[in-house]
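To illustrate the input format used throughout this study, we show a single complete record. The first block contains the structure-token representation of the backbone; no residue identities are included at this stage. The design step must infer an amino acid for every position from geometry alone.
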């Protein structure tokens, strides 16, 4: 695969991708991604869900998730 259009680096592959049918908002499927401990730290993830027949989306959906390591 090529790099994303906006030059964000690719994240490492998750160790788990879990789909829970109907567990999301309004009965949508909920997808959970899990990475090895400490692989994703102090950064933002840009997640893109592609518009395909399988997703049922009419356009790509992009959202962002931040990770901030706090003091404990």
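Output of the design step:
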């Amino acid at each position: 695969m090529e790099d994303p259009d906006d030059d964000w680096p690719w994240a490492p592959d998750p160790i788990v991708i879990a789909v829970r049918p109907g567990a999301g908002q309004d009965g949508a499927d909920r997808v959970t991604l899990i990475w090895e401990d400490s692989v994703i730290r102090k950064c933002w993830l840009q997640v893109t869900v592609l518009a395909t027949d399988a997703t049922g989306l009419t356009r790509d959906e992009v959202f962002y998730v931040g990770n901030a390591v706090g003091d404990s």
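Structural context for interpreting the output: The two ends are 39 Å apart (CA to CA). Residues 41 and 67 are 6 Å apart (CA to CA).
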